[in-house]
C-alpha cells in the first residue's frame, strides 16, 4: 500500500519523505508553521520555517527560536519534496502549506478565511489533489455578513455608549482579531485603550500595518479617562479584577460564535458582533471547489457533519484528529514545556 504524502501522527502532520512536520503539537526537529496562533505554533521545535511576516510574531510569542522566513510562492525543497507557502487570509502572516512530491500535490490550509480583511494577505486558491481543511464553522448556520457592515455597527455601538457616558469594552483575541478591529475603529469618536497583551502584539505588527494610535492601560489609568472611549481586551480579561475598575462599562465580543445568542449569554456579554477570522459554511465549500481536489481531509471543528456533507456531494472526504482549534483560549501558556 502506498504511503500517503502527509500522515497524521501523535506529534502532528508528518511528511515522511521530507522528514518534516506541519504545525506539530509536540516538539520535533523540523517544523513548517502556518501561522502564529498558539495551537499551530508551539514551543520546543529545533527548527521553524514560516512566512517572513510570521517570523516576528512567533519570535515574540515563543522567545529565542531557530526560525527561517520564506516569501509567498517561494519554492524550497527538503529531501526532493517541494514546499511553498501561500496566503491563507486568516491573520497577518498566515499561510497555506503546499507540498509536492512525485507529481502529487497536497495543501494544508492551517486556518483560513476568504474575505479580505485589509490587513492580512488575501486568501489564494491553490490547486491540489488532497486538501486538508479546518471546519471551525462547518455548519450551514454560519453565514458571515460583510466586514464593512459589522465594523460600522461596532463604531455606532461605541458612539452610542459614549453618548450615555459609558466605557466600551470590546473583546477580541490578542493576535489577529484585535488588530482587525483596531484598524477600522473610528478615532473621531474617541481614544482607543488597550490591554497589555493586545498592546504588545500590536507593537510587533505596527511595522507591517498602519494602525491607529493606542494607549496602554496601566495601574495609573483612572476610570474617568476611559469614559466614552473604547478598550480592546482579550476574552480572558472578562470578569477579571483588571476590568472592574472601568465601571460604568458596556461589553461586546467580536467572534463567529456570536452567531448564536446562547454563546453571548454564556459569556455574559452585553453585545455580540459576528466577525470571524475563519471561513463560514459557503467559504469552506467554495475553497474546496476552487482547489480542484477530490480528496478532502477535515480537521478541527464540525468535522463529522462537514465531511458527511462533502461525501454526499461526491468528494472522497474523511476526518482526522488534531490538537488545533484552541487559539480562542487566551489562557494557553505559550512557553509551557511540552513532553516529547
Architecture blueprint of SSEs:
Blueprint: E1 7-8, E2 13-15, E3 20-22, E4 30-32, E5 47-51, H1 55-62, E6 67-70, E7 76-78, E8 81-87, E9 95-101, E10 104-108, E11 130-135, H2 147-163, E12 167-171, H3 177-184, E13 192-194, H4 196-205, E14 215-216, H5 223-226, E15 230-233, H6 241-244, E16 249-254, H7 261-266, E17 271-273, H8 281-291, E18 295-301, H9 303-312, E19 316-319
Description:
The protein has 340 residues and is an alpha/beta fold. The protein has two domains: 7-141 and 277-319, Metallo-beta-lactamase, Chain A, CATH 3.60.15; 147-273, 3-Layer(aba) Sandwich (Rossmann fold), CATH 3.40.50.10890. Helices cover 23% and strands 24% of the residues. The protein is built from nine helices and 19 strands. It has helices at residues 55-62, 147-163, 177-184, 196-205, 223-226, 241-244, 261-266, 281-291, 303-312; strands at residues 7-8, 13-15, 20-22, 30-32, 47-51, 67-70, 76-78, 81-87, 95-101, 104-108, 130-135, 167-171, 192-194, 215-216, 230-233, 249-254, 271-273, 295-301, 316-319. A seven-stranded mixed β-sheet has the order 7-8-9-10-11-18-19, with helices on one face. A six-stranded mixed β-sheet has the order 1-2-3-4-5-6, with no helix packed on it. A six-stranded parallel β-sheet has the order 14-13-15-12-16-17. Strand 1 and strand 2 (13-15) form a beta hairpin. The longest helix has 17 residues, at 147-163. The chain starts with 6 loop residues before the first strand and ends in a 21-residue tail after the last strand. The model is unreliable at 328-340 (pLDDT under 50).
